[in-house]
From TrEMBL:
Its EC number is 3.1.3.12. Belongs to the trehalose phosphatase family. It is an enzyme of class 3 (hydrolase). Keywords: Hydrolase, Stress response. It comes from the Eukaryota. The gene is LOC107423615. GO terms for biological process: trehalose biosynthetic process. GO terms for molecular function: trehalose-phosphatase activity. Its cofactor is a divalent metal cation. Gene3D superfamilies: HAD superfamily/HAD-like. This is Trehalose 6-phosphate phosphatase.
């Protein structure tokens, strides 16, 4: 009898693009995860006397989710908002996209970039605390500057390229399926796949990946993410970046992380693990769902508004000359 009730409740449940259950109404959800815009002044009391560091996801946070992943461009107004934030606070974009692709979208030199869910990071200096020497390489960037590239999954690169070729071949007969190479991970997009074919696509990918036990599959917004099964994620990338920026052992830093996807939950958990009032985790969602974040924004336009408020807050703190 209990099993029948569980089945009936699942059938009645509504799901978002990540396959997560939509929990109640948005208005009631806001009582648990209040708007970061409506509660901005209260939130920023935590930043008094601290150095703010800003971390941003890309898709669904700085840009809208679109059918063609190659067309997920950010608006010029959003770019200006991010640039202004980066001029006032250390700012990093942590994305599941390849780092080169994120840089192509954002087009800002003032920002630090972490691609492949944090498995491809480039910073002016490395980290002895969170990054091993074998995964950190000193290189010269396109501007002739010395940087440290951190790639904890680089030994998986040949296998990833093999998987990309096989997946593209196996999925080419499913209309709308897109296999995106994100260098140290890959994405199988099914936003444009007909509902009747989604199950077959997922089964196809899962069956093929049975032959690659060192990889794991997770699901995002109409996408399957395939990554090396290593102890690294966006949360660890956040810690790595804090350390390389000189805040690894600092008690007077307030990291702010804004993201919309399941993979951002790892970063939210790290923020929460720092202790009460030691960071701000903000989820971007237009549907009520379970999250490790403490605050919410509804969509990218609200993210832009929040970033502008953040800059104004900093400017108001600075004495006029």
């Amino acid at each position: 009898m209990g099993l029948q009730k569980d089945t009936e409740s699942i059938q009645r449940a509504r799901f978002d693009d990540c396959g997560e259950v939509i929990v109640g109404s948005y208005s009631s959800w806001l009582t648990k995860y209040p708007s970061a815009l409506d509660n901005f002044d209260e939130m920023m009391k935590l930043a008094e006397g601290k150095k703010v560091v800003v971390f941003l996801d890309y898709d669904g946070t700085l840009s809208k989710i679109v059918k063609d992943p190659d067309k997920a461009t950010m608006t010029q107004n959003m770019r200006e908002a991010v640039k202004n934030v980066a001029l006032h606070f250390p700012t990093a974009v942590i994305s599941g996209r390849g780092r080169d692709k994120v840089l192509e979208f954002v087009q800002l030199d003032e920002v630090y970039y972490a691609g492949s869910h944090g498995m491809d990071i480039s910073t002016p200096s490395g980290s002895s605390k969170y990054g091993s020497d074998i995964h950190q390489t000193i290189t010269i960037n396109e501007k002739g500057e010395e940087v440290v590239d951190f790639c904890p999954a680089k030994e998986f690169l040949p296998t990833i390229q093999e998987i990309v070729i096989m997946l593209r071949d196996k999925t080419k007969h499913i209309k709308g399926a897109i296999v995106e190479d994100n260098k140290f991970c890959l994405s199988v997009h099914f936003r444009c796949v007909e509902d009747k074919d989604v199950g077959d696509l997922k089964s196809m990918v899962e069956d093929m990946m049975q032959g690659y036990p060192n990889f794991k599959i997770s699901e995002g917004k109409k996408v399957m993410e395939i990554r090396p099964n290593i102890e690294w994620d966006k949360g660890r990338a956040l810690l790595y970046l804090l350390d390389t920026l000189g805040f690894g052992n600092s008690n007077d830093v307030l990291p702010i992380y804004i993201g919309d996807d399941k993979t951002d939950e790892d970063a939210f958990k790290v923020i929460q693990s720092r202790g009460e009032d030691q960071g701000l985790a903000i989820v971007v969602s237009s549907t009520p769902k379970e999250t490790e974040a403490s605050y919410s924004l509804r969509e990218p336009n609200q993210v832009k508004s929040f970033l502008k408020r953040l800059v104004k807050w900093k400017q108001d703190l600075q004495p006029s000359i």
